[in-house]
Write a structure and sequence with these properties.
By secondary structure, the chain is mainly β. It contains no helices and 20 strands. It starts with 9 loop residues before the first strand and ends with a strand. Mean pLDDT is 88; it is low at 1-8.
Length: 243
């Protein structure tokens, strides 16, 4: 299996790049910006059905936050996501405890500016032409919509397809074809006071095979990232249309 992390147990994560963490490993980012919300994308990549706890340290005065990343035997699970604001901390670190056996996760950071290092991801402009573009697991799309109304549409035939939209201090989690049980407990975790404020992280579910959301550009950047597995993303698409 190809790894995008470092062999050392301490990884410089300032680029927000796609990395692989094993038991005993730690990755640290020290470049979070005030006024911007960041998503920590975590996939269980151990190839077994053992759950993995990822520790997120964001404050010297607060206890680490644990995010559960469910196991999967075919690297087919959904992402677990943690959201943190650069207004609360400039530095975060993620780690897997050394006692986690063969625990392993893939991780990267998402925001309007992250990852700076897009190794292991596809990073493309989302053209506002209404065309449907493939929205696979490792996709990141970005756009700077003009000051007019636009329509975003995400389509998936798979149950519970999940993706995330970033806009400076806000994140929106889209859930297409939501199940009756909704999101799994711990699948979306807000970390720190700013990310926990109402409106900082919004979840928009639909019970149909698409979600449509109108947005109004203002010259700032918007970003969309997949938070689902390879198999669940095989038929997913994203489109942006000028209204």
């Amino acid at each position: 299996m190809e790894s995008f992390g470092l062999n050392d147990s301490q990884t410089n994560w300032n680029g927000g790049q796609r990395i692989t963490l094993n038991a005993g490993d730690t990755a640290t980012c020290t470049t979070l910006r005030p006024g911007q919300i960041y998503g920590i994308f975590l996939y269980n990549s151990a190839g077994n059905d053992n759950n993995v706890d990822v520790n997120v340290v964001w404050s010297n005065s607060k206890a680490p936050v644990k995010i559960l990343v469910p196991g999967t035997t075919a690297n087919a699970g959904l992402a677990s996501m943690g959201f943190v604001s650069g207004s609360d901390t400039q530095t975060i670190s993620i780690s897997i405890s050394s006692g986690s056996g063969n625990g392993q996760v893939e991780a990267w950071l998402g925001s309007v500016s992250m990852p700076i290092n897009t190794s292991g991801l596809t990073n493309n402009v989302l053209q506002a032409n209404g065309e449907q573009y493939q929205f696979n697991k490792y996709s990141r799309y970005f756009a700077v919509p003009p000051s007019k109304w636009m329509n975003l549409t995400i389509v998936s035939k798979i149950t519970q397809f999940i993706s995330c939209q970033f806009r400076e201090a806000n994140a929106t989690v889209f859930v297409v074809n939501e199940t009756s049980n909704g999101l799994l407990t711990g699948q979306v975790t807000s970390i720190g006071p700013t990310a926990s404020e109402p409106g900082a992280v919004t979840i928009i579910p639909t019970q149909i095979q698409s979600v449509s959301n109108n947005l109004q550009g203002d010259g700032s950047q918007w970003v969309w990232m997949d938070a689902d597995s390879v198999q669940d993303s095989s038929s997913a698409s994203i489109s942006l249309q000028s209204l």
